[in-house]
Amino acid sequence: MKGFSGSIWHALYIVLPLGLIVFFWAFFSLEKGSAYFFDPKDGGGSLSGDFEAHSKRYQDIAKLLITLSVASIAFVISLVTSDRQYTSPVAQRLQVVAPIVLGFFGVCVAFLITFITMQTYLYEQYCHAQNRDTYTRWKYALNVSFGWTGLLSGILGFWWLASNLWV
Fold first, then answer.
1. Helix-strand-coil percent breakdown of the chain, rounded to 5?
2. What tens digit of pLDDT does each residue of 64-95 get?
3. What mean pLDDT, rounded, does the chain reach?
4. What is the reported pTM?
5. 75-104: string of b/e by CB count within 10 Å (b at 16+)?
6. What are the residue boundaries of the structural domains of the chain, listed by start?
7. For residue 112, what are the contacts with CB-CB under 8 A and spacing of at least 6?
8. 36 secondary structure, DSSP code
9. Are 99 and 6 in contact (CB under 8 A)?
10. Which of 82, 80, 124, 127 is closest to 100 using CA atoms?
11. What are the C-alpha distances in Å from 100 to residues 48, 103, 131, 162?
């Protein structure tokens, strides 16, 4: 793992295929159809608008992981670029794995910001559509893939960091 951890771009070799797998899983988990209801209880009737609570929960989880990832990026960069000479084995291992860990956290932040933005935009588009027919299968799959891939990328970043520092 040490040689593979040497570049930020190596995180993309793991995360992008993972994102494609999540996209196709989400895409093929839905039946073919012209559009899907965003609201879980929506049938075009009076129960519209129930997605707001779900949206807040999803976006709060994304915001928490974005905050943790940005803080981790700052922490790793500050340790790696510090003027102090770290001779401990843990600090030396951190310098080895820092690039790929920063890649995982960076992808996490980018994907989750995209997820929040896309979810908000797609829901607004859906709410203002007269027939509620804007939330198509591919939009659902794309939104889900950004959310899950961002979440998994953050988890991978913390796992990679922990597994390589405390060996």
1. 75, 0, 25
2. 999 999 999 999 998 888 777 766 777 788 88
3. 86
4. 0.86
5. ebeeeeeeeeeeeeeeeebbebbbbbbbbb
6. 4-18+53-165
7. 62, 63, 65, 66, 146, 147, 150, 151, 154
8. -
9. yes
10. 80
11. 43, 5, 45, 13
CA distance 157 to 140: 26
**H helix and E strand count, the chain:** 4, 0
Euclidean distance between CA atoms 50 and 54, whole angstroms: 8
* Backbone dihedral region for residue 132 (phi beyond 0: left; psi -120 to 50: alpha; all else: beta): left
The pLDDT tens digits of the residues spanning 18-51 come to: 999 999 999 998 888 767 777 766 555 555 557 7
On whether the CB atoms of residues 146 and 118 are closer than 8 A, the answer is yes
117, two tokens: 């933005």
Q: What gap in Å lies between CA 131 and CA 128, rounded to an integer?
A: 9
